[in-house]
Design a protein that fits this description.
alpha/beta, Immunoglobulin-like, 2 domains, seven-stranded mixed beta sheet, four-stranded antiparallel beta sheet
């Protein structure tokens, strides 16, 4: 049995090395910027997540900003057609509003447009601090309305689904990450259009294989059942990443916050670092801000201030979360879909099991299009080993929240020297190395700070590798460290070592580099 496990581990090692060698080689060249499409419905936390997302558009290739529907928000067709799906919130809460012509969708909804317009006002400042920010014109060219009429309706194409389809079929290199902050209908319609066009042609198998290699779905749940009903049955080879164990960016994060996280969710922190930061800050939603996404929405009491839970219920609101102090954190529940895409050095987009500011992910995928049964077993074994370490997940929330605050400050700061910027962290040598069990290896870092701030260093083991136990790190606070590979490590197992650099600027900013050590065969 031991020999079989060792063989599987070696195979997995080969898979990982083949898949990720390009990332290791790219460290000293231009940073990799993953291609990403955002599909979002007009929910409060989608609004907030969009603001944070655009502040990280410097790290990404933004390919689409698409309005979509969900069971919680849909526009209707404007023809008086009434819609009802059993089990939706209007049914669960016993509301008498449906069947109805639309559900919680504002007339002329344009929250994405509004946020991009605010970004445009901030852009002259943002580009001073990071030249990679895309122009407002480029972002505006990516905005589309997708399948928004009814939740789960994929009966016809839309401008949004057409854009997704074209991006799925293009020949640009790299994977295409598609988020579902709302429902999957716009994504599902794009895939159905491809299926309808090519299924009965000689190109079908090649196109399916290409899509299975290329497309990665990043969901915030299955909010219109279209993943379960259409995508999974028809496109099971598409990678579907779900996340856990990471920072809580959702509604009510302050109710379960760790002691070190709580100060970053308070009214005073939100006002100083977010709300008072220009056009983007003015659109950011917090408790008691007097706003509603849709006027008189019985589900949206978050902007109300000065009322108790009971008073709000008597006013007709569906109170599913206790009222919080005015100006406190409200929620950014879709952050996990893109926070692992960021160029912070954790390289979490390479593989969902790596983990990062968005949490650690798992993938649901049929690998049969390109992998042998043995290779599939190796991948499953690797993911299982990583998941066993879920309880040791580091708390990235303070670093992520400080980083968000810094970028909000960039948006209102016209001079580079008047804001803080993240340290630059490099590894001297490859990011993937081989070592034998019992061997001690040296890892050398290189760290600088654009603001000449003091930077503290720490090497630590991220329990994301397939070797589940501790390793010994000597000189863990120096620029160079020594790592001893345990004698019980098996050939093919991996150990993830992080070099973390944190400056003493305001707010304090952190960057990383991840080195993956693979145990070689004796």
């Amino acid at each position: 049995m031991k020999k079989i496990l060792e063989k599987i581990a070696r195979i997995y090692c080969l898979i990982i090395c083949c898949c990720f060698s390009e990332f290791a080689l790219a460290q000293d060249s231009e940073a990799i910027r993953p291609r990403i499409i955002i599909t979002a419905d007009p929910e409060l936390d989608d609004n907030n997540s969009m603001i944070r997302f655009l502040l990280y558009s410097s790290d990404l290739q933004v390919e689409g900003l698409i309005y979509t529907s969900s069971q919680f928000h849909w526009k209707g067709d404007g023809k008086g057609t009434r819609w009802f799906v059993p089990g939706r919130e209007y049914a669960r809460f016993g509301l008498d509003k449906c069947p109805c012509e639309s559900w919680r969708w504002a007339k002329d909804e344009r929250f994405i447009h509004d946020i991009v317009d605010a970004y445009a006002k901030s852009y002259p400042n943002l580009k001073v601090h990071n030249a990679s920010y895309p122009s407002p014109e480029e972002l505006r060219s990516k905005i589309r309305y997708g399948n928004i009429e009814f939740d789960g309706d994929i009966s016809k194409d839309s401008p949004g689904s057409d854009l997704i389809k074209s991006l799925i079929l293009d020949d640009k290199p790299g994977q295409l990450f598609i988020t579902a902050w709302g429902g999957h209908s716009s994504i599902a319609r794009a895939l159905k259009s491809i299926q309808d066009q090519y299924q009965n042609t000689t190109q079908w198998e090649a196109i399916r294989s290409k899509i299975f290699r290329k497309v990665v779905l990043l969901p915030s749940g299955d909010q219109d059942d279209m993943y379960a009903k259409y995508i999974k049955p028809n496109w099971s080879g598409i990678e579907y990443r779900t996340f856990g164990n990471g920072p809580n960016y959702g509604y009510g994060a302050q109710l379960r916050a760790k002691p070190e996280d709580s100060p970053l969710l308070t009214p005073s922190w939100m006002k100083e670092n977010i709300l008072d930061r220009g056009p983007l800050g003015s659109l950011y939603r917090v408790w008691g801000d007097g706003k509603q996404m849709v006027k008189d929405d019985m589900m949206d009491y978050f902007g109300m201030s000065g009322y108790t839970d009971d008073q709000l219920r008597k006013m007709g609101y569906v109170v599913w979360m206790p009222v919080q102090p005015k100006n406190s954190w409200l929620g950014e529940g879709d952050n996990h879909t893109f926070m692992n895409m960021l160029g912070n050095g954790l390289r979490a987009f390479e593989d969902p099991s790596f983990g990062g500011w968005g949490g650690r992910g798992t993938r649901s995928q049929n690998f049969s299009f390109s992998m042998s049964d043995t290779s599939q077993q190796a991948m499953v074994a690797a993911l299982s080993s990583a998941n066993r370490n879920a309880g040791n997940y580091p708390n990235f929330f303070p670093a992520a929240q400080n980083d968000f605050a810094a970028r909000m400050k960039w948006a209102v700061t016209p001079r580079f020297e008047d804001a803080n910027h993240e340290p630059v962290v490099m590894i001297e040598g490859p990011l993937h190395v081989m070592a034998s069990a019992g061997e001690t290896i040296r890892l050398n870092g290189k760290v600088s700070d654009p603001d000449q701030n003091e930077v503290s260093l720490r090497w630590w083991q991220f329990r994301a590798g397939t070797y589940a136990n501790d390793v010994t790190i000597v000189n863990e606070t120096s620029v160079a460290c020594r790592v001893t590979i345990p004698k019980d490590a098996l050939a093919g197992q991996t150990i993830h070592i992080i070099l973390q650099a944190t400056d003493d600027g305001k707010p304090s900013l952190t960057r990383y580099q991840r080195v993956i050590i693979t145990v070689r065969e004796k």
